[in-house]
Write a structure and sequence with these properties.
mainly alpha
Length: 139
């Protein structure tokens, strides 16, 4: 599946064409947060918010490309001793194999980004190993 451009001023709800009802009043903060994040413009989401949605497999056709773009753009700074978002990287790396078979171009972009990263935690290194084990074959 090729990456398709989308309007970053739209929310996941608008992009999906699917509005969720308000969560039940006794919902967890995670459920309430995900519902609220689905209504925000995807281009305004922070790395932490992207990680939250990805972790819940919400809006992946739009959220995953934004996360991969952020990781790719920040990887050179991390390699030079700057800050890097392990939570977002972990959320991306831990998607199931069927996600990556749906988005093989993104999977290979993530793999390319990984080659730039250094000094990653053992937890992230384990996530990388599992991710690479399910990496779709070349296009």
């Amino acid at each position: 599946m090729k990456k398709r451009p989308f309007n970053r001023r739209c929310s996941v709800e608008e992009l999906e064409g699917n509005s969720w009802p308000e969560p039940p009043e006794d919902s967890t903060s995670l459920v309430k947060s995900v519902h609220a994040l689905r209504r925000r413009p995807v281009g305004d989401l922070t790395p932490e918010e992207l990680a939250r949605l990805i972790g819940q497999n919400v809006g992946l056709p739009w959220i995953l490309p934004l996360a991969v773009e952020f990781l790719r753009d920040t990887a050179p700074h991390q390699a030079a001793g700057g800050w890097y978002d392990d939570d977002l990287l972990s959320a991306v790396l831990t998607r199931k194999a069927d996600v990556w078979s749906t988005f093989p171009e993104l999977a290979h972009e993530v793999d390319g980004t990984l080659s730039v990263l250094t000094d990653l935690s053992p937890y992230i290194q384990r996530d990388i190993k599992r991710f690479r084990a399910v990496l779709p074959s070349g296009d």
